[in-house]
Write a structure and sequence with these properties.
The complex is a heterodimer. Chain A is an alpha/beta fold. Helices cover 37% and strands 30% of the residues of chain A. In chain A, the strands form 3 sheets. In chain A, strands 6-9-10-3-11-12 form a 6-stranded mixed beta sheet, sandwiched between helices. Chain A has a 4-stranded antiparallel beta sheet with strand order 2-1-4-5. A two-stranded antiparallel ribbon of chain A has the order 7-8. In chain A, a hairpin with a 2-residue loop joins strand 4 and strand 5. Chain A starts with a strand and ends with a helix. Helix content of chain B is 24%, strand content 35%. Chain B contains 11 helices and 24 strands. The longest helix of chain B has 17 residues, at 430-446. The A-B interface holds A 51, 53-55, 74-76, 78-80, 84-85, 87, 90-91, 93-96, 101, 104-105, 108-109, 140-141, 157, 161 and B 1-5, 416-419, 421-430, 432-433, 436-437, 439-444.
Chain lengths: 247, 470
């Protein structure tokens, strides 16, 4: 069975600027990959292109989920197929209670109305893992949330939706060290043979808590280097300059 | 934002109340307005002379007055002689549901009103065209001295209380449509809550227009004596015709000292109906008035529920919700008039415009010279769903009293691409995401509504939102 998430020679642009220029990457289920790169290398464009943000246009290449192209699918269809994106900047939706939103999302993912009691039991359990107060889900979605609360909410959604492939876009940004540990613990709980995870980050600090199987370095819209976890430490010491110079 | 999904603007509003039943009129008058029609109504209702004089005088006032300049379009939009001003499908108002003529009961069955009757909340009234087909109140409430009658019965059974209050708050001179109502009023409710009595279950009334090219002019008079409480709830609907109808109601409320009154409206007229309504409350010392005004239907609504704070420490509040869909213009808003010291008031208005609909917020905050130390807070938020739709804000403030605090905040927003992307990225379909955002936008008003109304509003808004964002 073709249980992997593949990005093949992907080209994408926003407005008239080409950002991704032939990016190729494969994440098999059961593995955690990290993409690191300097500002402007195309990290966010990659996240948005994967999830099908209409503002980003894919001009070439292929994205496949378990062997099937998803480029023709709308964002919600991709999500129902098991794709998930933890947003760098989750947006506020005033008046929509977080719990209600989560329930609708879980129902959409499951393709049926889930049992209310079971849903709330699961929600409570996941909230405990993430050290989230029960009042949290009664608040309006992301409205007035601190940076850390928003990111925890993203991981909570991921845990509730149980995706097959998840992209975490700069989930570490805006988190203090305690919050970072909790969020990483949540991701580690989810980690396993049934999910492939792609972590997009600028810094290696998140990778200290989530040891990735592979690290890729993104420069100017392409993977410039791939390697094992040792790459992260090297980057921390030497920055991105040595790769750009290498070229 | 470029989007591959085509929009479906052809059927924006699904209106399940738009059916028409063949109900034979027991009494009716020829088309057009005239003093003869006034005389016919006075005769058939066996009204006292003072009411006959009042009606005739009101008709003269109506004919003399112009449509105010700020009501754009309404001057020439229709010919008043196209409407029928009195149609009664019933001989008299029934107090037992079984006594309501069967064909009318069928209409109410379809509208779900018959089910409401079985629950018999506190009291229920059901008006069809010009008359109340049904009006009844729980015995436990009438034992407390609470009066809940059709306005016509109020005049007959309690002439003194009636005359003391009727048209004292909104005289026919007030505006052209108040004059029109005063000339042809029929039906509506008469509510009297005695001193210190709390009517803890809502009194509910449903207004239905069934006749074509018809004018419905119900008149409601609510008197809450000192320290009393009541919640009055009204809903309305009409069939879809190719012609227009007119609904010009007048609602006068008296909130006496330390009393509290809440008046909830879910207006869902068909888009043939011109809804031109005058609603005003007079609030005595430490009294509280709350208007919850939901406007989801009609071709044109012109309505600004008003709080006149005449006693020290009075409080007035208006929660206004308007949804303007294709072919609709909701000109809604509120008025807070401070006429005594230490009063406070709040307006919270939310409007949604979609499919080329238009909504306007028109508000007035007026603080009289002697009304010192008053506080007013106005929030009005507009949500515009597509570039064809429109929203305007016309706030007026006249502050003459000392130490007044008046706050006004207004926002205009659209359903953002970021919100849609975020919600759809969780597997939620786009139309559900839009509906979610819109329902979230009105949540602060909806949560003030009784449960069944909140559910109904969410359903109606959901229907209107289908296919509304490209």
């Amino acid at each position: 069975m073709n249980d992997k998430f593949e990005i093949i020679d992907l080209h994408a642009r926003i407005e008239e600027r080409e950002i991704l220029r032939g990016l190729t990457l494969t994440v098999p289920k059961g593995e955690v990959h990290a993409i690191m790169g300097p500002n402007g290398s195309g990290k966010s464009t990659l996240a948005n292109a994967i999830m099908g943000n209409p503002k980003y246009e894919v001009t070439g290449g292929e994205i496949r989920l378990k062997g099937e192209s998803i480029l023709g699918l709308s964002t919600d269809e991709r999500a129902r197929k098991g794709l998930f994106l933890a947003f760098q900047y989750p947006c506020e939706v005033p008046g929509v209670r977080t719990a209600n939103f989560l329930r609708l999302a879980c129902n959409a993912r499951a393709g049926k109305e889930l049992d209310t009691m079971q849903f709330y039991d699961k929600l409570e359990e996941k909230m405990k893992v993430l050290d989230i107060d029960e009042k949290f889900v009664r608040r309006y979605l992301n409205e007035g949330f601190s940076g850390g609360e928003k990111k925890r909410n993203e991981v909570l959604q991921m845990m509730m939706l149980e995706p097959e492939f998840a992209v975490l876009d700069e989930t570490d940004s805006g988190l203090d060290i305690d919050a970072l540990k909790i969020v990483c613990e949540g991701v580690n709980k989810l980690r396993g043979p049934n999910i492939g995870i792609l972590i997009i980050t600028h810094y290696e600090r998140m990778l200290r808590y989530i040891a990735p199987d592979h690290i890729h370095i993104l420069v100017e819209g392409r993977i410039a280097k791939s390697g094992g976890p040792e790459l992260a430490a090297h980057l921390e010491q030497h920055g991105y300059d040595w790769i750009t110079k290498d070229k | 934002m470029s989007d591959p999904t085509p929009t479906n603007p052809s059927s924006p509003r699904e209106y399940k109340e738009g059916f028409h039943d063949d109900i034979k009129a027991v009494k009716s008058v020829p088309k057009g307005l005239s003093h003869d029609v006034v005389d016919y109504m006075c005769d058939t209702k066996s009204e006292p002379d003072w009411m006959r004089e009042f009606r005739h005088r009101s008709l003269d006032l109506f004919l003399k007055q112009d449509v105010p300049a700020w009501m754009p379009g309404l001057r020439d939009e229709f010919n008043y002689d196209e409407f029928t001003y009195y149609v009664s499908p019933v001989e008299k108002s029934a107090r037992k549901w079984e006594d309501v003529p069967e064909e009318i009961r069928r209409t109410y069955d379809k509208l779900g009103i018959a089910k409401e009757e079985q629950k018999l909340l506190g009291g229920l009234g059901a008006q069809i065209d010009s008359e109340m087909a049904y009006h009844n109140i729980q015995e436990s409430l009438s034992k407390k001295g609470i009066i809940f009658l059709s306005c016509d019965e109020g005049l007959k059974q309690y002439p003194e209380i009636f005359r003391e209050h009727f048209a004292k708050n909104i005289p026919p001179e007030d505006n052209k449509f108040a004059a029109l109502n005063s000339a042809f009023w029929s039906g509506g409710s008469f509510v009297y809550i005695p001193k210190s009595v709390k009517c803890d279950v809502p009194l509910s009334v449903y207004f239905r227009i069934n006749a074509e090219q018809f004018g419905q002019f119900e008149r409601t008079l609510i008197i809450c004596e000192d320290d009393s409480f009541c919640h009055y709830v009204e809903g309305c609907s009409a069939p879809i015709y190719t012609t227009n109808s007119l609904h010009a109601a007048v609602v006068e409320i008296y909130v006496k000292e330390r009393a509290r009154c809440r008046y909830t409206t879910i207006q869902n007229w068909s888009t043939d109906v011109y809804n031109l309504v005058t609603k005003r409350s007079l609030i005595s010392a430490k009294g509280v008035m709350e208007w919850v005004d939901g406007n989801l239907g009609s071709k044109r609504t012109v309505k600004y529920p008003s709080c006149y704070m005449i006693g020290e420490g009075a409080h007035g509040e208006v929660l206004s919700l308007a949804s303007a869909d294709k072919g609709m213009w909701q000109d809604a808003g509120a008025k807070l008039v401070f006429l005594a010291p230490n009063c406070s008031g709040r307006i919270n208005s939310k409007s949604i415009s979609g499919h080329g609909g238009r909504s306007s917020y028109r508000g007035l905050v007026q603080v009289a010279k002697n009304a010192t130390n008053c506080r007013a807070q106005v929030n009005c938020d507009a949500l515009i769903l597509d570039p064809r739709s429109r929203s305007d804000t016309y706030p007026t403030m006249e502050v003459n009293g000392d130490l007044a605090t008046v706050e006004h905040e207004a926002t205009v927003s659209s359903v953002s691409d970021e919100q849609l992307f975020y919600l759809t990225s969780r597997g939620i379909k786009k139309e559900d995401a839009v509906s979610m955002i819109v329902n979230g936008f009105i949540e602060p008003v909806v949560k003030e509504l009784p449960m069944e109304f909140a559910v109904e509003i969410n359903r109606l808004i959901g229907l209107q939102m289908e296919g509304s964002v490209g």
